[in-house]
Design brief:
255 residues; alpha/beta; Rossmann fold; SIR2/SIRT2 'Small Domain'; 2 domains; 6-stranded parallel beta sheet; two-stranded antiparallel sheet; elongated
């Protein structure tokens, strides 16, 4: 009986979400680490599996750590770079790309650096924390692509620029500011959204966590599709807590 009631409630929530999408003039998706978990990429804080479970991010993923000890930094980050480069989009990434192709989604704003939205075919994409697609040399400004960096990692513990200086992943490390252009674009999209679809994010990492409040302040609605609690649950027009692939597949089918 309880399962049947839960199933009916979920179906009703998906139908309501589809109704909101159809009525909205602008729909924007905001995605976090949870959308990539089905692709085999751990999130950050889940007990037992989170990326930071046994590692202090301030020691290995801070800009000061990169500056002070690039070898230690890359000992941690090098494995992550190579692992992420092999990952493939899952059904949730593909569902968002399909929604965009169908004219139901204007853009995806993502906190993820894993390139999976790109690989799935999303065209209008704002990667607010950067991407592993390239590295950058803070000395000469060179930006070698991922394949080149992986090749150099095979030759040395620390990938070096052609100028001889250590490369830094073109991602926002702890202690760095987000790109003003990326954050400005994300904020503009949130301001113009009639519906902000928040997927796989705890909505606790600022400044991106302020985007739902931006949409709400402009009279838009938010919908949340993630398994853990968020600070915005009580203000969400729709709240889905199931598997992100299943929930987004159901949304696509309902449209």
């Amino acid at each position: 009986m309880e399962r049947a009631v839960a199933a009916r409630a979920r179906t009703a929530a998906v139908q309501e979400l589809a109704r909101l999408v159809r009525r909205a003039g602008s729909v924007v998706a905001l995605t976090g680490a949870g959308i990539s978990v089905p692709s085999g990429i751990p999130d950050f804080r889940t007990p037992g599996t989170g990326l930071w479970e046994n590692v202090d991010p301030m020691e290995v993923a801070h800009i000061d750590a990169w500056r002070a000890d690039p070898e230690r930094f890359w000992t941690f980050y090098g494995d992550r770079f190579q692992t992420l480069g092999d990952k493939r989009p899952n059904g949730a990434h593909r569902a968002l790309a399909e929604l965009e192709r169908g004219g139901h989604l204007d853009a995806v704003v993502t906190q993820n650096i894993d390139m999976l939205h790109r690989k799935a075919g999303t065209r209008e994409l704002v990667e607010v924390h950067g991407s592993i697609a390239a590295c950058v040399c803070l000395s000469c400004g060179a930006r070698p692509e991922l394949a080149v960096v992986i090749e150099r990692l095979g030759e040395s513990t620390v990938p070096l620029c052609h100028c001889g200086r250590p490369l830094k992943p073109d991602v926002v490390l702890f202690g760095e500011f987000l790109s003003a252009a990326a954050l400005g674009r994300a904020t503009a999209l949130a301001e113009g959204a009639d519906l902000l679809l928040c997927i796989g994010s705890s909505l606790e990492v600022h400044p991106v966590a302020q985007l739902p409040a931006v949409t709400l302040s402009r009279g838009g609605a938010i919908a949340i599709v993630t398994q853990g609690p968020t600070p915005y649950d009580a203000r969400a027009a729709v709240r889905l807590t199931g598997d992100v692939e299943a929930e987004l597949a159901a949304l696509v089918a309902a449209l």
